[in-house]
């Protein structure tokens, strides 16, 4: 599993966010576009792209996109 | 386990009753216009029917049942079982089913009880009714399923208010040689907190703190007597368990997917439902939605989707219909109604 592909996949679920802002260390919760509905898109993306079941706790306990990446990698 | 078939019982008719009052999501002031647009895009819910203070779930179901009994020309004394599936009954006790038995003028010999399930409740209810009718030899039975979730939702909680609507349904079941239902039912109580009303039961009796308004985050204020929905966990559960239970039914009963005319899912939210349909590779024309006009109506979503979206397509035509409900519990149920010829499908207002 590639971090750059993951970041690209994450950028794809956002509509109005500059892809340049999507980095490993990005605190996703601070993104203006992030909300509870974006979280659903993230769960959907993890399921579709990586066949991983991401839970609410996984997202709540994560800070950066790298944290999410690691969780998906470990569950995959 | 938990996959099984029940033969010789068929659905004769379904009628649904929704409150007259429409609440449009674009009129809500707890969300910004931008948030509302995004919400509608993701959930598919534009408007919902909301019961007035005087209308309970049992009232909607009662109206639906009276209409159905009349349309099918049934004699009330022939109805020997009534099951009321709801999480919003009239009282904590007694069960609403016995009140409904009396209101509908059914015989005192009628078996009547409540089943307090939600999203999976319609399928569970059908499994209970058909099984009991089969073992007892009862010829006619009524399943009343519905909810007025608006009564247990905080008006200042943007995570639940725009999603849920109210509706009641009545389904007539009758002995019919050769008919067949197949079921897959299951539950996972480890996720019981995912959708919950914390206070008011025996675990947490209503106390002085129960009605205190808590601010969970911006736009989410509620008391402990209001519905709590963990959207992320529900979503994660739905997109995993929905396809799994449908696939299990299909595999266990060797169902030819192409022979299934319609797949009617619990209307949770559009993004979740579309994802489930996509994972199952279902053609869009076989998967109806009623989310736009009614939202998520809990145990009524499946019958409401059938009467509002499929009336022309299936009325009096033998059809193979898969129905699938999943959610609060956590709990799920999927079933196939084989060669199901429904003679009455009506939607009324109260």
Q: Termini separation of chain B (Å)? A: 41 Å
CATH class membership of chain B: Alpha Beta
What is the share of helical residues of chain A? 40-55%
List segments of chain B where confidence is low: pLDDT < 50 over at least 5 consecutive residues. Answer: none
Rounded radius of gyration of chain B (Å) = 19 Å
CATH superfamily (homologous) name of chain B: Thiolase/Chalcone synthase
Distance between the termini of chain A: 9 Å
The CATH architecture of chain A can be given as Orthogonal Bundle
How many strands appear in the DSSP assignment of chain B?
15
- The number of helical elements of chain B comes to 9
Order of helices and strands of chain A: HHHH
Largest interface: chains, residues each: A-B, 17 and 16 residues
> Which oligomeric form is depicted?
heterodimer
Largest sheet of chain A: none
Give the overall pLDDT of chain B as a whole number. 97
Biggest sheet descriptor of chain B: 9 strands, mixed
Number of domains of chain B: 1
**Percent in helix of chain B:** 25-40%
- What is the rounded Rg of chain A? 11 Å
What's the CATH topology name of chain A?
Non-ribosomal Peptide Synthetase Peptidyl Carrier Protein, Chain A
Uncertain parts of chain A: none
What are the main properties of this structure?
heterodimer, A: 76 residues, 4 helices, globular, B: alpha/beta, nine-stranded mixed sheet, two-stranded antiparallel ribbon, 9 helices, PP-bd_ACP (chain A), Acyl carrier protein (chain A), ACP-like_sf (chain A)
């Amino acid at each position: 599993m590639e971090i750059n592909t993951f970041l690209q996949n994450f950028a794809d679920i956002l509509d109005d966010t500059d892809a340049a802002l999507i980095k490993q260390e990005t605190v996703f919760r601070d993104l203006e576009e992030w909300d509870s509905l974006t979280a659903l898109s993230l769960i959907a993306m993890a399921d579709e792209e990586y066949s991983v079941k991401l839970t609410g706790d996984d997202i709540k306990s994560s800070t950066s996109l790298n944290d999410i990446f690691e969780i998906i990698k470990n569950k995959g | 386990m938990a996959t099984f078939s029940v033969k010789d019982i068929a659905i004769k008719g379904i009628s649904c009753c929704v409150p007259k009052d429409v609440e449009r999501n674009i009129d809500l002031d707890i969300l910004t216009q931008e948030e509302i647009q995004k919400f509608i895009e993701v959930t598919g819910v534009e408007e919902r029917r909301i019961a007035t203070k005087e209308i309970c779930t049992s009232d909607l179901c009662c109206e639906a049942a009276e209409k159905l009994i009349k349309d099918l020309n049934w004699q009330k004394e022939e109805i020997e079982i009534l099951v009321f599936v709801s999480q919003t009954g009239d009282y904590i006790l007694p069960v609403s089913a016995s009140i409904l038995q009396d209101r509908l003028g059914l015989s005192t010999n009628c078996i009547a009880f409540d089943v307090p399930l939600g999203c999976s409740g319609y399928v569970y209810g059908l499994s209970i009714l058909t099984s009991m009718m089969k073992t007892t030899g009862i010829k006619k039975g009524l399943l009343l399923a519905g909810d007025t979730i608006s009564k247990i939702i905080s008006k200042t909680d943007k995570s639940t208010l725009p999603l849920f609507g109210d509706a009641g349904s009545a389904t007539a079941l009758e002995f019919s040689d050769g008919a067949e239902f197949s079921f897959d039912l299951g539950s996972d109580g480890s996720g019981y907190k995912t959708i919950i009303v914390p206070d008011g039961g025996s675990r947490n009796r209503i106390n002085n703190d129960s009605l205190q308004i808590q601010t969970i985050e911006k736009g989410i204020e509620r008391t402990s007597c209001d519905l709590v929905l963990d959207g992320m966990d529900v979503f994660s559960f739905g997109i995993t368990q929905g396809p799994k239970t449908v696939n299990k039914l299909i595999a266990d009963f060797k169902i030819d997917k192409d022979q299934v005319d319609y797949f009617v899912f619990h209307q949770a939210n559009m993004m979740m439902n579309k994802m489930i349909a996509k994972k199952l590779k279902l053609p869009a024309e076989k998967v109806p939605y009623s989310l736009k006009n009614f939202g998520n109506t809990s145990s009524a979503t499946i019958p409401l989707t059938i009467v509002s979206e499929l009336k022309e397509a299936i009325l009096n035509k033998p059809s193979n219909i898969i129905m699938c409900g999943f959610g609060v519990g956590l709990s799920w149920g999927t079933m196939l109604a084989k060669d199901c010829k429904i003679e009455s499908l009506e939607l009324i207002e109260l």
